[in-house]
Each structure stands twice: as structure tokens, then as C-alpha cells.
Amino acid sequence: MKQFQDKVVVITGGASGLGFACAQAFAEEGAKIVLADLNEQRGQEAANELAAGGTKAIFVKTNVTVEEDVEQMINKAVEEFGSVDVVFASAGVAAGGPAGELSSKDWNFVLDINLDGVFLTNKYAINQMLKQDNGGAIVNAGSIHSLVAQQNIPAYCASKGGVLMLSRSCAVDYASKNIRVNTVCPGYIETPLLKSVPSEQKEYLASLHPIGRMGRPEEVAEVVLFLASDDASFVNGAYLTVDGGYATK
Amino acid sequence: MRNRFQDKVVVITGGAGSVGSCTAKMFLQEGAKVVLADSSKQAQSYIADWKQEGYDCTFISTDVTDYHQVEALIKSTVDLYGRVDVLFTAAGLHHDNPCHELTPENWDQLIAVNLSGTFYANKYAIVQMLKQGSGTIVNSCSVFGIVGAEGLTGYAAAMGAVKTMSRSIAVTYADKGIRVNSVCPGTIDSPTVGELTGKSKQELIADHPAGRLGTPEEVAKCVLFLASDKASFVSGTELVMDGGYKAQ
Fold first, then answer.
1. Whether CATH 3.20.20.140 fits B9-241
2. Is the pTM higher than 0.80?
């Protein structure tokens, strides 16, 4: 028996990067996958890719900052597969500049997607999970920057700090309803997002991790799967760093 | 059945306790060879039972407060099984008191078992793991190593120290292929529940948003995850498993 056999897993930001790596890992463990993303073409391709491997997967075009979109995402999952057992809220962006130079527009862009989007995703997921006897498990994408700061990304740090406390609050509110909400806090991960970063900069980023390298998307996926699994049945309102020791220092 | 620890050599200190023994059994079920170290003879009888079931495991009588014995534990493990892939420090003393009532003798014991014992086990395991170029350690900590609780003094001090010691050890050896993490349970249902804080079981349950206490099996599952290759980029962290206790 696979760990997520016939479980329904919804992943925001699921078309690429970390979100898609997690989708693949859940699929390998037998889950049915709902990929939600703004990028329609890539999202459909990603769902087709999973389906080609024998996974039941659909793509739902979703702007996580639009309440109707998020509601519809959960409704589609239920219509198609009957329940929402796991949600991984991984949609996220970063926009640079220290606070003195950061435009309100960039601040709002980051906060809208990284924090408001996670709130809306949790809200509609929880409303569905409350109807289910088995409740459900939510994993929200935090970051090492939920815990420690880095230069030039105040909006990102603020949004990820917010995700951590939002997750804890949801956990405390719904623990007795058999809903678990935890935060995964990755360090820097080799994703398409970092492809454009010059190699010197990458070496610097790698050096920030005591383990001496950046992480791989699959390594984050393993942690997300653990938090979403029954192995973590008493883990609630917690965060788990997957950062090669970055935030430990 | 998963097989994440096929032929891995696992040392568990405090193996006679409910969490230690439960974790040992799970490691065995996933293919590991287990050395159960404890000063209690109870561990010996677990080992006898598991050997009868066909598992490869050994009891080594060990007082973790005596570093000579801990050094010998690691040496004997290497003599027997060739290496040490995983260390889980589960040895712990739970009899604590409010600060003004805690005797210096009791304080010394709490620190000796919970902190010094953890240091000795980490030290000698790391000496071996450095020779291997790999290994992973999970130290037993507690939510009371992170947040305060009425009635605790020495236990809280030791657990807080285990947490920060684990972090520093993790950072020190991260680039040597050694991962070190702590598991921080809330209150676990066991025959001695309530001994630590003096609260009734109902009071303890009410403290946990989940509306129940944890089980030794739930701790064991977290320990196995942290010790497994699935957690290859997880080091220097505390995995809190407390049904939401600390989140509020």
C-alpha cells in the first residue's frame, strides 16, 4: 500500500519548480493530483505529464489572490475526486529591494501571492476538510526566511513570517477537528527560479548552508510528504526546516 | 512495509523506555540492526523477545552518565556490526521539581542523564561517524526545551541545552556527512505520564489543541523520518510533535 493511495492532493504553484516536484512525489505514492497555477500552458503540460505516468491529475487555472478562483479550485477538486485530503500551498514569488527602496506595488505583489494567497487556500481547504470525517492535512510553504532574514527581500521575509504564524493559528483553531496545518521551511533550492542566477552568486548561496550545497526539489518534497502523511499525526502547528542547517546558525 | 534502514546499524540509548523501545522495534521492522543501550534490565528482555522474532539486535548495559561506558558502547557496536549509522538518544530522567524545592542532587542527576549523557553519546558516535564519512543523530528533546512549563527546572534546563547543543553539533559536522536533529514531543501517553509536571492526564490533554496526548509510536515515526535518507537536507532543526501545544 502506497503512502497516499487514492488521497486527493491539491498543490498551488503546482505547475513547476517545488510545487511540481512535490506533485510528482505525491503521484509516486498513489495520490490523485490537482495542480493549480496561473500558468495555463505549463500547468496543462504538467498535468498531462502526470497522467501519462498513470496518475489521475487535473489542472485548474488559479490565481491564488482571487477568492473566487481559490474557491473554484477546491470545488473542482471535490467534483473531480470527491474530497481534499492534502493541500500544499506552494505558490510564491519574490521581488527585491530593501524597504527604503521597495515600491508599494512590489510589496503588495509579494504579500498578495505569498500571504493572502496562502490564507485563501487554507480557508477554502479547511471548509472542505471540516465536511470530511478524516479531516485533512495542510502544508504551507514557508522558508528559512520565515525564521531568519536576508538582505534585500523584506517583503518576501515578511510574507513568509506571516505564513508561519498563519499556519500555527490555523493549527490551533482546527486541531480538534482532525485538521493538521504545518509549515515547511526550505533553504535555497535548485529550482528553475535560480537558473538565471549567475554561478558566483549560486556559490555564495550554497556557502550559506553549513552542509555546503543548495537543496534539491526532491529533498523538500520528502519533507512535505512526511508532514502531510499519517507518520506526522501528532505534528501540528509546527515548522520543519529543510535547509542543510542554514537557519540553525 | 517500508525498508528505509536495511542493514543500517542503529544505537539507541534509553532503549528500555516506552519511546526508546518502540522506536527500536520500528527500526528493526525496517531492516536495521539495533543496539539497545540502557542501565535497566528491561531492555535485555525486549532484546530477547525480538531475537526470538528473528531480528538482529543486541543489548549493551550502559549507564549514559559514565562516559567510559558510553565510549565502550560505541566500540562494542563497531566490533559487533562494523559501524554506527544512526544514534537515537532516548535516555531521559523525568523527575523534576519547582526551583525552590529541587534538591541539588536531583538537579545534578537531571543534568547528568539528560544532558551529559546526550553529549557523551553524540561525542563517541561522531568520532565513529567521522571515520565513516556519514551518519545521523536524533536527540530526544522536548517542547519543554523550547517553552516554559510550571514545575520544571532541571529537565527544562537540560532539554534547552540539548536543543542548542544539537544545533551547534549539526552546524559543525554538516559538511562531514553527519546530520544532527532533535525531536521535541509534547506530552506522550505512558505509564509515567504526569510524573514530569505533576498534572493529571485530563489537564495535560486539555493543554494540547489536538485534544489528546501523543503516543510513543508517533514519536518513533518522527525519529525514523529524521534518521532516514528522506531527510537528507534536514539538519540542525527541531521537529516539534505536540498536537499544537507549542503553536499557541
1. no
2. yes
